[in-house]
Amino acid sequence: MNRRRVVLLFLTAAGLVAAAGCPPPPRSTGVPRPEQTIEVGMDKTVRGEGGFRDVYLTVLPSDLALVRERREANVPAGVSAVQYMDVIDTIIPESTRVQFQPNGGDVEDVAFLEQRYRYDLIEPWRILELSLGGTVRIKWTQARTGVEKLLEGVVESTAEGLFLRTPDGTYTLGVPSGDGWYARTILDDLPGALFARPLLDWIVDVREGGPGVLETSYLAWGFSWEADYVITASEDFSSADLIGWVTLRNTTAGRFEDAHLAVVAGKVNVAAEMYNGRGYAGYGMMAMGGAEGDGDGDYGYVEEGLFEYHLYKLDQPTTLPPYSWKQVAFLERNGIDITTKYRADIGLQTGAYGGYTGTEDEIPSNVRRVLTIENRADVDGLGIPLPAGTARIYARSGEDLFFIDSEQVEDTPREEPLDIDAGGAPFMVVKSKITDVDMSDAGAFGSYTVVRHEITAVNRGSHAATVLYRMAMPGAGQPYGYAGYSAWDARLERAANSAGPPLEEVESGIWEMERTLEPDQETQDVLVLRIHQSY
Question: Which residues, at least 6 apart from 10, have a Cβ–Cβ distance to it below 8 Å?
Answer without folding.
Answer: none
